[in-house]
Amino acid sequence: MAQPTAQSLLQSQWSLKRTIADELSELPTSMLGQAYFTPTPKSNVYKYFEKGILTVGTYKGPFDKTYIVKLVDTYTLDFYFDDQKFFHTLNLREPGVPVTHQCNEDTYQATYTFNLPNQWAVTWVIKGPNKNLKIKTTYVPFFTS
Question: Tell me: the pLDDT tens digits for 42-86?
Fold first, then answer.
C-alpha cells in the first residue's frame, strides 16, 4: 500500500459510518452519512463537512459538523474547529500514532488508520470527569450514479 497523502483525502467524497460507545449512558448510538472537503478562497485551506442521520436509542435525527482543514504539506493536515480554534494535527507519515486534544478536563485521543483508496478510519477515545466514550468512524469512497 502506498503512503497516503493529504490530497488523497482532500480530493475525495466519503460515506461515513460512526459508532459511539458511551459507558455513561449505555445507549446504542450510530451515525450514517457523507463527508467531504471543499476548497475555500484561501490557499491550502479546506472546509470539512459531514452530515447524515444520528440514531441514539430509538431517536433518529439529522447531524452535521464542520471543521477547517489546512494543508501544511504533502503529508500533514491541521484541523481547526469552525470557530478557528486549533483541534489537532494529522501527520499521514505516522498512521497509528495517536493524536491528542485537551478540552478543559476532557482528553480526546485519536488513532487514524489508512487503506487508501478503499477506506480510512479514526477512533477517538474520550475520557473526562463526565465523559467515557469510544467513537469509531470508517470512511469509504462515496459514489453517485
Answer: 999 999 999 999 999 899 999 999 999 999 999 999 999 999 999
Task: Give the pLDDT of residue 82.
Answer: 92
SS3 for 58-125 is CEEEEEEEEEEEEEEECCEEEEEECCCCEEEEEECCCCCCCEEEEECCEEEEEEEEEECCCEEEEEEE
Q: What are the residue ranges spanned by the domains of the chain?
A: 6-140
Closest CA to 48 of 56, 39, 60: 39
Average pLDDT over residues 103-124: 92
Please tell me the pTM assigned to this model: 0.90
The one-character DSSP state at 8 is: H
Q: Could you identify the residue written with the cell 493536515?
A: 77
Q: Percent helix, strand and coil across the chain, each rounded to 5?
A: 5, 65, 30
CATH 2.40.128.20 fits 6-140, yes or no: yes
Phi/psi at 8 (5° precision)? -65, -25
